[in-house]
Amino acid sequence: MLAKRIIPCLDVRDGKVVKGVQFRNHEIIGDIVPLAQKYAQAGADELVFYDITASSDGRVVDKSWVSRIAEVIDIPFCVAGGIKSEADAQEILMMGADKISINSPALREPELISRLAEQFGQQCIVVGIDSFFNKEANNGQGEYQVYQFTGDEKRTQKTSWTTFDWIKKVVSLGAGEIVLNCMNQDGVRQGYDIEQLKHARDVCSVPLIASGGAGEMKHFSNVYQQADVDGALAASVFHKGVIQISDLKQYLRQQQIEVRPC
Amino acid sequence: MSQSPANPLTPTNFVIVDTGCANLSSVKFAVERLGYQITITDNIELIKQADKVIFPGVGSAEHAMKNIIVKGLVTTLQTLTQPVLGFCLGMQLMTESSTEMKKSSTGESNSNTVECLNLIPTKVEPLQAQGNRLPHMGWNTLTKVESHPVLSGISEGDYFYFVHSFAAPISEYTIASCEYGSHFSAAIAKDNFIGCQFHPERSAKLGSKIIENFLALDPQELVSQ
Question: In the Cβ-directed half-sphere of A197, how many Cα atoms lie within 13 Å?
Answer without folding.
Answer: 33
